[in-house]
Every structure is written in structure tokens, then in C-alpha cells.
Amino acid sequence: MKKKMILCTLFLCLCMISINSISAANVTVNPGSSIQNAVNKANPGDTIIINDNNKQPYTYKESITLNKKLNIISNGSVTIKAKTTNSAIFTIYSKAAGSSIKNFKLSDTNYSIMVSGASYCTISGNTITSASLVGIQFYGDITKSQVLNNKISGTTTKWGNGISFEYGKSTYNTIKGNTISNYLNGILFNDCSAYNTVSNNKVRCYALKGAGIYFTDNAKYNKIIYNTVTGAEDGIAIQKMGSGMASHFTITGNTVKYNKNGFWIRLTSSTISYNTANYNKVSGIDVTGSYNKIVHNTATHNGVCGIALGRYSSCDHNTVQYNILSYNKAGINSASNYTTISSNTVQHNTSNGIISTANHVTIKNNSVNYSANRILVQGSSNKVS
Q: Full-prediction pTM beyond 0.90?
């Protein structure tokens, strides 16, 4: 019996030694050394710590490729510039899924971070400047990645994206707390994106060009919440460019100001609520689609409409309720059939309170005051009370 116990204990000790020998390690890179060499020598799961120069800022000039899961972290004020502007500073391939890049200053390249088919990655706390085409670019099918608390700025407002997901399906990703400026578009998702969350980002566009946050065809079940967008052609845009209509979005708590259009949205079966759309040149909230709930929003001081509803079909069934619409040219301008417009506060609009040019519309219990024309209705089978 004793012999068996000794053998078991010896076996457990050998197991512990084996586990410890393959556990993740910390690898340090100091000024003058190569980050890529450290990446090549590291084991999957290791953490590579890039040091500054004894608490003084230091700049490495490298283009780094990851083909294994690694955590790469800046220690102090560390800047990395690419070898050439045509190469990304970090390129993360699919075998490096689960990697993280944290707390660097990245500058002077076309693409700062390129993620190609690698899911479960975390890009956080970086300051990206002078990335002329894209700050952080995801290519291919990407799921459950996080882009958190980065500051990203480009070189021109004529082209480029701050953060983009393109050429694949993007699902369950989180884009949160980023500050983006000086690109044509701030945050862009390609078609077929689903279950992504875009929250608490600040996007500054210029000259009423581009889109702050942009989704395209067949996108479903995405959340756009508590973001701020200024200076864009369309602050938050969801476009129908092909055959598939976006659907089942939650768009809540966003602030869109000083854009051409605050919201330019083409979608169905979605909720647009508790947003603020003020001082936009044309419309605060412009929606075309069906079975949408547009509730508890504030749209004031917009050049044409507080809320504009386009005609999507013969039976749209949208709900516009509990919104505050003031100091626009028109509070609500709707061409949406079978829509209910109720319990809104529509006051001090310079031309019209509520305009409806659709059929089978119910307009009831609205407070409409201090407009040149309070309620103007055209169409058939409408109910106004």
C-alpha cells in the first residue's frame, strides 16, 4: 500500500512539473531589441511586455506579425511606427485568435492594426494617430472581439475608417469607449453583421461628410447605444444598398448633433428610443421601414424635420410615440402607411407641427402648439383625434 501511495505522489509531482513548464510566461522587450524576435520565440499564451526607455518615451520601428495567441502590452510611453506606410504595425492572423494589443502609441502608417480572420481578440487603450486609411481593420469572419477605449485619428476626412469590419460576417463583437476623428467614417460594419454592440463611443466627422456609425444590408440584432456623433453627413446610418433590409436593432441613448442628418436609417422591426438629435442641418431622425418603434426621443432645432418617416410599403405599421419635437421647421413629416403617431409633444416648429401624407394613419393625443400649421393630413382612411 505504501509503495502505491509513493508512486501516486511521484506521478502527481511529475504532472505538476509538466504543467508548470508549459504555463504562460512573461517576455520582456527593451529598447534596441526586436519585438518580432520576441514574438517568434514566445509560446502561445505568453505575455510580451514592451518597455520604454527607463520611464522615458521610446519609439520602436517595426511591422509585427502574429501567428499565435499572445498578449502584447506597453509598459510606459511606448510608440511603434511601421517599417513602411504600406505595412500595418500589427497584423494578427487567424492562428493568433484570442490575442490582445494594449496601451501603445501607434502612428504613421496606412493601417495601424490589421486583424485577418482572428476572433476573440482585444484591442484596448491604444492611441492611434496618422493612420491614413484605417485605424483598426478587421477582415473576414470575426466573432467575440473587443475594441475598447482607444483614441484613433486619421490624416484626412476625405476617406478611411476609424474602425471597420469588412469582407466577412461580424458577430458578437463589442466596440466601446473609443474616440474617433478625422476619417470619412467612424465605425463601419459590413453586411450580415449580427449581435454586435457599439456603445459609448465619440465620433467626430467634418464638413458634413461620411457617417459616424454605419451598418449595411442584412445586419440584424445589433445594439447602438449611448454614442455621440457630430459633423457627419449621417450621424448614425443604416443603409439598404442591396436586397436585404436590416432588422431588429436597438438604437438607444445616442446623441447626434451638428450633422446633416442625425439618423439616416433603413430598417425594420427595431426600437429607436431615448436618443437626442439636435441642430442637424436637415433631419433629426429619418427612418424608412416597417414595424419600428420610435419612442421617447428628443429632436429639436433641426433644419427641416424633427422626425421624418419615409414610405416603405403599403403597410408599414410604425409607432411614433412620446417624442419631444421643437424648434424644427416641421415636427413630424410622415409618408408611412398604417402608422400610429401618438402622445408626442410638438411645439414651436416654425412651419408645421405634424404632416402626414399616408393612408390608414392614426394621429391621437399629441400636444401640438405654436406652429404655423398644427396638423396637416392628406391621404385616405386616417383617424385624427
A: yes
